[in-house]
Amino acid sequence: MKILIVNDDGVQGEGLYKLAEVLSPEHEITVVAPHTQKSGFSHSLSFHKTISYAPYNLGLPIRSYSLTGTPCDCVKFAIDVLMKDDLPNLILCGINDDYNLGTDVVYSATVNAALEGALLGFPSFAVSIGRENADDFTYPATFIKNNLDALMALDRSDTVCYSLNFPSNKKENIKGVRFATLGLRKFSDRYELRENSDGSGYLLLGEPIPLDNSPDSDVELIQQGYITVTPVRIQDTDLALYSSQNGCDLCV
Fold this sequence. Notes:
By secondary structure, the chain is an alpha/beta fold. It has helices at residues 14-23, 71-82, 104-107, 109-119, 138-146, 148-152, 218-223, 239-244, and strands at residues 2-6, 28-34, 53-55, 63-67, 90-96, 124-129, 160-166, 176-179, 186-187, 190-194, 201-205, 208-209, 226-233.
């Protein structure tokens, strides 16, 4: 199988390397990743400015490239330029070194890169693990390898990708696999003044705020020890509110 792997942690990301390492003995892997950290870039694309790429040696028998763009740039550039004559069968994004749960997907460049892949017509999956378990990516990479056929068999459309989150990097700690809805996550965001070699500035920090979520949500199920699989759709019109406001009279 021909697989494109991208991430938002940069081409040197350990999760990306482990995913490529585990899959490369049995599959044809191409890596296209940002040259620097691009977390939180959501669905950003590099409009009105040039981007460039260069081969990057990951020490694996695969094609790999560093791109001076965003994760969504990596997907589009790979499909339109680097792989245009040898298109992938699927796109994997990750492995991200922190969860992408609930409303995190609004900001997540990992999930949005997978959504870009879906928009371009490819089966696309985002893979993430909790930061406290991001010291070893072997188990989630092996899970993806062992379940590729099952993942490829999932229903899909050009507006949907699948987001997978892992509660642990040890198989014995996994309670099971559950399909989940997106929950709600909020953070105690604050800006702290920091001084560094580039001068002083403000750093955004915050911790998750406990919220009541549906028992079927990814936020709840991940806490119970389940791997969560969530179909994420880019078309998110609130149909209930659309219907209720449809008769509202607005002046021109």
